[in-house]
Amino acid sequence: MTQPNDTHTEHWHRRLLEGKSALMAVLTTVAISIGGLVEIIPMYSLAAGPQAIAEVSPYTPLELAGRDVYIREGCYNCHSQMVRPFRSETMRYGPWTRAGEYAYDRPFQLGSRRIGPDLQRLGGKYPDAWHYEHMRDPRSTSPGSIMPTYGWLLTDSYDVADVTASVQAMQTLGVPYRDDEVAQVAESLSKQADGIVASLKGQGIETTPDREIVAMIAYLQRLGVDGKAAVAAAEAK
Ligand code: HEC
User: In 36, 78, 160, 197, which residue has its Cα 20 to 30 A from 12's Cα atom?
Assistant: First the structure.
């Protein structure tokens, strides 16, 4: 029995290309390189990451400390930080997210699951005391919530040296913190934390400025604030 492509019926493609292994290897490499270069060249010719929007400024040291706690506790496993450009999303959360809002977010906290609501437009939605109670026991503010409790944030303290290291790390990554800001992390921390402690006190809660909950509240109240300002500024034009 003869095989279908035995002998002289051989196709030209097989004879001139596939039959010549060296030539075939060279041409395959050329073909793959084109695909690779199309992806690689823009990475080098464009500036790294999204460009900041004028209204977006870096996190304060206290907010950065809260953000580190957010990452440590894995909040991103249940919360996204990206409002998608769909009506159902913008009606629920607010203006959709622009890429430039993440310019100083390293690594960004887009998240991939929404077991809880998106947090990108959270800042200013609730009073500080709400967040305090919600972290202590989510059921106390949101009946039936399946969010875990994070009671230790109310008792544990952040470390000023760690926060300084975080600010320096961000500076290395290109976030525009000035050297004098890095030198004054401790002052900046206590100034902003005192404000939050005072606001909590006004709502009947006693705590101290060194607590992780204070940093977490600073971070949560900052989320999306710059982004909303940027959208408002763009709409006013
Ligand atoms: C197991 C999933 C899960 C984890 C982990 C989780 N959450 Fe939640 N979160 C939820 C759910 C569900 C809700 C909605 C009910 C509620 O308000 O508690 C929620 C609500 C919230 C809200 C209120 C949002 C709004 O717009 O009303 C905030 C703020 C919040 N979570 C912050 C956090 C922070 C900070 C962490 C990490 C320390 C965290 N969550 C971890 C599930 C989670």
Answer: 36
d(CA 66, CA 216): 4
* Mean per-residue pLDDT pooled into runs of 10, the chain (237 residues): 61 88 95 94 74 88 98 97 95 92 91 95 97 98 97 98 97 94 96 98 97 98 92 85
Read off the tokens for 147: 């969010």
The residues lining ligand 1, judged by C-beta closer than 6 Å to any ligand atom, are 70, 73-75, 77-79, 115-117, 119, 122, 125, 138, 142, 145-148, 150, 220
Give 171-226 pLDDT, tens digit per residue: 999 899 999 999 999 999 999 999 999 999 999 999 999 999 999 999 999 999 99
Structure tokens at 59: 């996190």
Residue with tokens 């059921």: 139
Separation CA 111–CA 4 (nearest Å): 54
> Which is nearest to 216 in space by CA: 102, 140, 130, 141?
130
CB of 95 within 8 A of CB of 228?
A: yes
Q: Are the C-beta atoms of residues 212 and 158 closer than 8 Å to each other? A: yes
Per the document, the length of the chain is: 237
Which residue has tokens 């769909």? 86
Residue 117 CA to ligand 1 center (angstroms) comes to 7
Angle, CA of 11, 13 and 19, to the nearest 5° = 100
Backbone angles phi, psi at 28, to 5 degrees: -65, -45
- Look up residue 156 and give its two tokens: 């544990």
- Residue matched to tokens 């004098």: 180
Contact 149, 170 (CB under 8 A): no
